[in-house]
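Shape matters. Shown next:

___
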Amino acid sequence: MTQNLYPPARPQTVREVLDTGWHIFKATVGSTLSYAMLMSLAIEFPNLYTIALGRPLPSQEETDPQWWAWGIVGLILSLLLWGALLLRQKALVSGERTSTMAELKLAAVQLSRVIAATGLWMIGVGVALGPYIAGTQLAGLNGVQSAADALKALALSPLTLPAVWLSVALMFAPMLVVLRKLGPLDALVASLRLVRGHWWRASMVTGVGYAAVFVLVVCVAAVAGALVGLAGVVDQSGAADLWVISLAAVPVGIVCSALSFTVMSAMMLALLGDLSVRLTARTAGPQS
């Protein structure tokens, strides 16, 4: 069992936070991948429903109530499993004892508050996007279909900055609900306090994390595409069988998502530890 990765003994540089995140990932991926795979499977419920009906992906299912129902069930289940994954990851790198039953029980207890915190986070970002959305309506911008549309979108892009700032400032709220048992509003306030003065640090670490995830997804998708090509999934006319390709794409998506979840969870945990140490030092500073 790896210890002393969380929380860090002192504030870290961005490079050290990334290094800590990578070590957390390596130390916990074997123990948390089962949660991540189940979480990814839950997210794929709507796509699995579509494939079960014999339809290829992507498929427009917005008018199908069952498609939406499977999506909601999958989202709720994925948040439950994410909470358990986060608890296991934190326990492994901080030397705590844990068990699957304890993780799932605590994640279930916190689930309603995680949903509320996530919902408030998304609502806040949506409200912050209001000026940009209003601007696109006034400018008659409905997608970027020409050079003129691109110029309009570029001119309106500063209006997205409040939403970008808020999305980073509130991103720790669901984690704080799970790890510190805070209520949704308290978690949002605590996330703001953690990120205050360190927004660029937080955005850089998460940006590198997402970049790593993107490279990982591209590599896995490329291998999967090559295998599908070798399999010769075509009919007699030479056209690809879209349903079979869709069926093959779902497992690839599950693997990519599972690895992505474990990478990003490790990076976010490392960043949370660093910002928590910095907040403690900042709070205790005037008293020393």
In short: The chain has one domain: 14-282. The mean pLDDT is 85. The CA atoms of residues 84 and 105 lie 8 Å apart. Residues 242-284 form the longest helix (43 residues).
